[in-house]
Amino acid sequence: MLRKLYDWVFELARSKHATPALAAVSFAESSFFPIPPDVMLAPMILARPDRAYFYAGVCTLASVLGAILGYAIGYFLTDVGMMILSWLGKADTFEASKALFQQHGAWVILIKGLTPIPFKLITIASGIFQFNFALFVALCAVTRGGRFFLEAWILKTWGPAVLAMVEKRLALWTFIGIAVLVAAFFAVKLL
């Protein structure tokens, strides 16, 4: 079963619809969607290392555009933004987050944009707290571009060797991947 899923992901990564799907997921993840674009970006780069930086660029641009939507949700539709934050389990930390944004807003955007923490938390909160919009867009471009281009460089440089290792022990690496995701989920809940 794992092999079929693995093959399906790589087949999708090579399809003509892969780039628009990557853009859509990246856009949506920055504003309301729970799945990070890395789950598409990584297989696409591994399937086509020659297009690694193109894919990172698509991911960055779509993510920044989605961040603008997330900001607009927080700014113009505060109740909807609070509902999304509540759904993500972060509405109860509103006052602490507000104080953090007032003191270190730029650093919050830069640091959290590089992590696996859902970026929509930052984009919606930035709108709710009325963070400077032009600075917000610039910081999103820097942090998301840094994340996706670093991922592209790592996968282009070491991806083929790692891919061969993963293919030999697919079940073990799947277990490790799930363990990392579970740990990241609990780390996000604690933040």
Automatic annotation (TrEMBL):
Kindly provide the name given to this protein in its UniProt entry.
Membrane protein YqaA with SNARE-associated domain
What is any one of the record's Gene Ontology cellular component terms?
plasma membrane
InterPro entries, per the entry: DedA_domain, VTT_dom
Its keywords, alphabetically, are:
Membrane, Transmembrane, Transmembrane helix
Instruction: Describe the location of the VTT domain by residue ranges.
Output: 58-151
Q: Name the Pfam families on file.
A: VTT_dom (PF09335)
Q: Which residues cross the membrane?
A: 52-77, 170-188
